[in-house]
Amino acid sequence: MISYADYDTYNALLNQGFTIVDFYSETCGPCKVFSKILEEITYDLPFVNIVKVNLTNFPKIGEENEIDAVPTVFFVKEGQILERVVGLMEQDEVMEKISQYYYG
Amino acid sequence: MTEQVRQKEVKMTQLRLKSTLTQGWDYSSIDIRSFAIPLRPDMDRYARDIKNFCKAFAKKEEALDVADQDMVTLSCSSENGKFQKEHITVRVGLGLYSRELESQLTGLSVGETKSLRVGKDLVEVTIEKSVREVIPELTDELAAKSGVPGIQTAEDARTWCRFKQYDEALEEAGDEAFAYLAGEVIKHSTFQLDEGELAVSVGIISKIMNLDSLESLKEEYEENNTPEQGLHISVEEIGKDTLMSAAYGQSMMQLTEEDYEAYLEKCATAQRVSVEEIRDRYPLTEYLINTYNDHFINTMEAYVFRRLKELGEAMAKDAE
User: Fold this and answer.
1) What is the per-residue pLDDT for B233?
2) Dihedral sign, CA of B197, B200, B202, B204?
3) Which member of B89, B94, B208 has the closest CB to residue A47?
4) Do the chains contact at A8 and B272, CB–CB below 8 Å?
5) Side-by-side strand order, sheet with A72-77
6) In angstroms, what is the C-alpha Rg of chain B?
7) pLDDT digit string (tens) for A12-24?
8) How many CA atoms lie within 13 A of B14 on its CB side?
9) Is B312 helix (H, G, I), strand (E, B) or coil?
10) Residue B230 in contact with residue B187, Cβ under 8 Å?
11) Is the CB of residue A86 less than 8 Å away from at least one CB of chain B?
């Protein structure tokens, strides 16, 4: 399931089991590529929550989380950030992280 | 003149940058043949894309047993605690939890508990639920319901899948061709640039990039390219190019006050603030530069991909 966070909903969306948080901006090409990867993943694994944060519209969320570049991805479980990855990830890499953190 | 008519006239007022294109180079006259690659369809990939197209209309049904690709909820336990999970969900066949365990789930019934040998471990697994997707066949009716622009029939969907494969094959070639084409168009066109708008454009680029990004971008360019290729290595140069692209884009479309107001409304709604508050965040000149620049880029990209597809299909045919 893909949700779009805003200033009011960001914190609550991170506390729903296992979540992948995708920080992106509207001018970022690699972010669009990663978006397609996440769409494929959410289709195959609908139980994985995906939260997208548009830093063009909500820059303060980026500042509070010290996001320097996009795309940046958080892997979160029960509200705790397990890993942050900066840059475009391949689908296989994301699946490995899901295997490690959702089932681990 | 009534107030309503006057307001409508204000909204339809065209918005223009002071910077202008004085002589535009025709981008279709630039030869990009050297970037084309022969495009031959991968039939296995084509079959998968057709299936994925129809997947959007898949119905999910609860099954009585487990088959490959089912979404299975299960609990498991082993003596050494290595396989100790309650109510987890796996998609059988992906192997994200345990490929060896998942391969033995096929054929088990919902409600069944079974001991499975996984490596050296004996794992007791209980199947709690199995959800199966039933993917329909591609028909004209399904294609029309897809909502994909230009797709009304099954044949349209097949053509779209064929070109989708080409889209991915062309991505890298297209990026290089686009960079070349856009560079040539700007290099051979002439512009009158406003100093104030130039400062705004440089400001936009500065906001997008931080110093770390600029430094690593410089390193990448110096490592991989030569100065003769005219690549940007400063925020000022990128800002100037952006304004020139915007001036070119302005020659291809017209923005009105109504467009700007609609954009502010959309941003205000997304950020849950008033339009008055959002106006400072998205000043008019920035909006014009960004939007005209986007239009220039989108037009060039669409042309490049269309042209590379034509050239690629012709090359594949010639090679047969």
Assistant:
1) 64
2) negative
3) B89
4) yes
5) A2-4, A49-54, A18-24, A72-77, A80-86
6) 28
7) 999 888 999 999 9
8) 8
9) helix
10) yes
11) no
- What pLDDT digit, counting tens, does each position of A32-90 carry? 889 989 988 888 888 899 999 999 888 889 999 999 889 999 999 988 999 999 999 99
* Residues 6+ away with beta carbon under 8 Å from B167: B305
B59-134: CATH topology is: Chitinase A; domain 3 (3.10.50)
Instruction: For an interface test with A, give the residue of B89, B264, B278 to mutate (most A CBs within 10 A).
Output: B89
Cβ–Cβ < 8 Å for B182, B230: no
| Ranges in chain B, pLDDT < 70 | 1-12, 209-233
User: In B95-139, where does DSSP find H-type helix?
Assistant: 99-102
Q: Do residues A11 and A53 make contact, with C-beta atoms less than 8 angstroms apart?
A: no
pLDDT at position B228: 47
The domain limits of chain B are: 3-41+170-319, 59-134
pLDDT for position A84: 95
Nearest CA in chain A to B95: A99
CATH domain A2-102 topology: Glutaredoxin (3.40.30)
Structure tokens at B246: 């915007």
Do B17 and B248 touch, CB atoms closer than 8 A? no
Active site positions of A, annotated? 28, 31
Q: How far apart are CA B210 and CA B208, in angstroms?
A: 7
Distance CA A59, CA A64 (A): 9
- Pairing type for strands A2-4 and A49-54 reads parallel
Tell me the β-bridge partners of A23: A53, A72
ipTM of the complex: 0.79
Q: Which residue has the tokens 């397990």?
A: A82
Upper half-sphere CA count for residue B226 (Cβ side, 13 Å): 2
Give the position of tokens 């409508």.
B8
